[in-house]
Amino acid sequence: MFGWGGRVLRIDLSKRRFIVQSLDPSLAQNYIGGRGFAAKTLWDELPPGVDPLSPLNKLILAVGPLTALPIPNSGKLLVASKSPLTGGYGDGNIGTWLAVHMRRAGIDMMIIEGKAEKPTYLYIENKGDEFRVDFNNAEDLWGLDTFTTEDKLKTMHGSDVGMVLIGPAGERLVRFATIVAQKGRSGGRPGMGAVMGSKNLKAIIMRGQGDVKVADPMLRKMGVDAIVATKSKPNYPFWMRQGTTSTVEWAQEASVLPTYNYTEGQFDDYEKIGGFSVEKNKVMTRSCPQCVMACGHVVKDTENEPAELDYENIAMLGSNLGIGDLAKVAHLNRIADMMGMDTISLGSTLGFAMEASERGLLKEGIEWGDYKRAVEVATDIALQRTELGKLLGKGVRAASMVLGPEATEFAMHVKGLEISAYDCHAAPGMALAFSTSPIGAHHKDAWLISWEVQRGRFDYTREKAEKLVEMQNIRGGLFETIVTCRFPWVEVGLELDWYFRLFRAATGMDMNMETLSTISNRIYTLIRAFWVREYGHWDRAYDTPPQKWFKRPLSRGPLRGAKLDYDGYQRLLNWYYELRGWDERGIPRKETLIRLGLNFVIPQLGSKVNLN
Ligand code: PTT
């Protein structure tokens, strides 16, 4: 089989055993890799309704057929599990050398099961078909931040290894703890770090050896050509200067920059934290392996230490909290990276606490723009050391349920995942994208907003639902299954056809928009079935954005008075369901399951809900 390594490495932490299994070729054919493998494995292997923090949950690490090949930005890894934050399917896409080493060793997927008796880290290596997995004692590392842990492990094992790890937040089961690599790459927003922590697993290290076999030897030349094409795009030089951080100025202009817990779409001090400010203060850039578009812009924080920034981090820890100072934002970002927490959820959680304090719902609260207190509370969350830290560490959905009905109106999440950094008072299509994302409110499956702003942001048209499905199929269906970075396509405009050609050269299999759409529909529908099975029921309310955007209009800026229209939104949702072949509740129809080859889902799903 070309393009895939053909091996699955299954590791049982409870029994301290491992086994190398053959990859089922039909899995490769029907689900490609990455998210496809994760969704199918979690459906097949998890007991329905399992507690995400119990040993019965599984952590999946999966590459895809284009991962680590000599093509633009290919050093990516998909991490997935049942999420302790949302209770549904969760995944993230992290840049790490571990992906490269997995490919060298011919491992397409690792499945981590059980729970180690004591804090443990895994060291994995191979010589051809011979694998070694050491279950090493990590008691000395438990409690250490991610930067120190990485340094120590590299001193012990050399720096030519691949490694992912967790920080104190993951160990203490903060529900939005992430998996971290290379001091600043963070993946698995819906609490994949907490799943690792629940398994007493501090780190996974791998030294893989071997070559990836591809169908067409011309792939190398094609990859070089794709790199040249990427670098010659007109937008490339500006991208290299500012990366995603230039989005701050764009979002301000478009009134979508989350400000004061998504109450407004513009922030007075946006220039101080914008792309030009980052460019001026930048000391270096950081990137994933095999990257030609480094997106991690590093500036010095308030302690003169380096911190890596992206747009999401700046908006969520800056404007959303009323903090208009780049070094302060950078420091909050560094805390998140060192502790192993997601910056988007951290920013949303702090913003929620600020609004709750303003409304008198929290006693020992935190005021808008209070940086010192934000640092304190962020650390309390990571270390789970105060009542407030413990409350917020469960995420805004759980915290709002404790604070009462008023709080649920400004808890900015969908399905329990805090919303990424786009205010949607005047962006119904983007609100739909957040609300139908397969992991909860993340932007990665469809960044509809720039298209929507140009196209007519106040419209509620079928075209928006169609565009959303098209985008999801490309971003979620292609990039999360071939497992490479989408930035060459999305940010500088490398034509999609490159990926189809590279896929063909790697695997010998054909791929075009039509085949992609079938595979993608299959994966989105399987993931929806997983959510329904785990929740035991389904309701359109789970696919609806927070009340604030419907009820509380923007009070400033050129779009003053704008808010979402509830009936208009429901129309968009109906069209979306129809396009996916799901019924009016958002549950896949029986005929859709059969058409997509998901017949195996019917018995379990049918035992939870009536299928139409
Ligand atoms: C992603 C999410 C994002 S999306 C950002 S900024 W972005 C935040 N970054 C964080 C960070 O940094 N530190 C931290 N402690 N938490 C953070 N949380 C947030 O995590 C990321 C890049 C980026 S930067 C983006 S958009 C693209 N995402 C891709 C994707 O999802 N799929 C894909 N095939 N290619 C992508 N390329 C780009 O990769 P999650 P990373 Mg991340 C400091 O993982 O869970 O998806 O959350 O992985 O290696 O950092 O790369 O403006």
TrEMBL record:
<keyword id="KW-0004">4Fe-4S</keyword>
<comment type="similarity">
    <text>Belongs to the AOR/FOR family.</text>
</comment>
<dbReference type="InterPro" id="IPR036021">
    <property type="entry name" value="Tungsten_al_ferr_oxy-like_C"/>
</dbReference>
<dbReference type="InterPro" id="IPR013983">
    <property type="entry name" value="Ald_Fedxn_OxRdtase_N"/>
</dbReference>
<dbReference type="InterPro" id="IPR051919">
    <property type="entry name" value="W-dependent_AOR"/>
</dbReference>
<dbReference type="InterPro" id="IPR036503">
    <property type="entry name" value="Ald_Fedxn_OxRdtase_N_sf"/>
</dbReference>
<dbReference type="GO" id="GO:0016625">
    <property type="term" value="F:oxidoreductase activity, acting on the aldehyde or oxo group of donors, iron-sulfur protein as acceptor"/>
</dbReference>
<dbReference type="GO" id="GO:0009055">
    <property type="term" value="F:electron transfer activity"/>
</dbReference>
<dbReference type="Pfam" id="PF01314">
    <property type="entry name" value="AFOR_C"/>
</dbReference>
<keyword id="KW-0560">Oxidoreductase</keyword>
<protein>
    <submittedName>
        <fullName>Aldehyde ferredoxin oxidoreductase</fullName>
    </submittedName>
</protein>
<keyword id="KW-0408">Iron</keyword>
<dbReference type="Pfam" id="PF02730">
    <property type="entry name" value="AFOR_N"/>
</dbReference>
<dbReference type="GO" id="GO:0046872">
    <property type="term" value="F:metal ion binding"/>
</dbReference>
<dbReference type="InterPro" id="IPR013985">
    <property type="entry name" value="Ald_Fedxn_OxRdtase_dom3"/>
</dbReference>
<dbReference type="GO" id="GO:0051539">
    <property type="term" value="F:4 iron, 4 sulfur cluster binding"/>
</dbReference>
<dbReference type="InterPro" id="IPR001203">
    <property type="entry name" value="OxRdtase_Ald_Fedxn_C"/>
</dbReference>
<keyword id="KW-0479">Metal-binding</keyword>
<dbReference type="InterPro" id="IPR013984">
    <property type="entry name" value="Ald_Fedxn_OxRdtase_dom2"/>
</dbReference>
<keyword id="KW-0411">Iron-sulfur</keyword>
<feature type="domain" description="Aldehyde ferredoxin oxidoreductase N-terminal">
    <location>
        <begin position="4"/>
        <end position="210"/>
    </location>
</feature>
